[in-house]
Write a structure and sequence with these properties.
Elements lengths: L1 E3 L10 E6 L10 E5 L2 E5 L2 E6 L12 E12 L5 E11 L15 E11 L5 E8 L7 E7 L2 E6 L4 E8 L2
Antiparallel strand pairs: 1-6, 2-5, 3-4, 6-7, 7-8, 8-9, 9-12, 10-11
Length: 165
């Protein structure tokens, strides 16, 4: 599947956004530091009005694409081997109305291989999720006390054993 979403604020002159305290503000100043190669403010933040007119809506990528496929290989005993994979792509998107924090374009690939008995009651599957070990912020929130972020799961390997009655 493919989606295209061109979303912009038509008129949002008083969007409330958070910005770091600076020396001219009352209170402790936020400090600009570099975390994982990205300049980031840490410390105290304050809210401010911002004209977000024309900015992209938060968490809305322009493009997303998903492709999934599976292939079953019959075995002579009546069982089968099932190979499957999927890939998801997203163009960049922003986490806030002022479009100051966001993601870059990214892709996530997942793969699996399974073996099923002829009667379909037992299935053993090995899988790898996030094959490329893509590091991605999936949640981001600004507040007066700072910024908070959560990352996606790293590459994971596993095996499942499924039994159907």
């Amino acid at each position: 599947g493919v989606t295209y979403t061109h979303s912009r604020f038509d008129n949002f002159p008083n969007a409330i956004v958070y910005r770091p305290f600076v020396a001219s503000d009352t209170g402790a100043s936020a400090q600009l530091v570099t975390l994982n190669g990205t300049p980031t403010y840490v410390g105290n933040f304050t809210n401010a009005a911002y004209d977000a007119t024309g900015n992209a809506l938060p968490k809305t990528p322009l493009w997303t694409m998903n492709l999934a496929s599976s292939y079953a290989i019959p075995l002579s005993d009546g069982g089968r081997i099932v190979l499957a994979g999927d890939v998801f792509f997203s163009s960049n998107y922003w986490f806030n109305a002022n479009n100051s924090y966001g993601t870059g374009d990214y892709s996530i690939v997942n793969l699996s291989a399974g073996w099923e008995l002829p009667d379909g009651h037992l299935k053993l599957t090995a899988y790898v999720t996030n094959v490329g070990d893509t590091d991605l912020i999936t949640y981001f929130n600004e507040s007066a006390s700072g910024t908070f972020a959560a990352w996606n799961r790293p590459r994971m390997f596993g095996v499942t054993l499924q039994y159907k009655l």
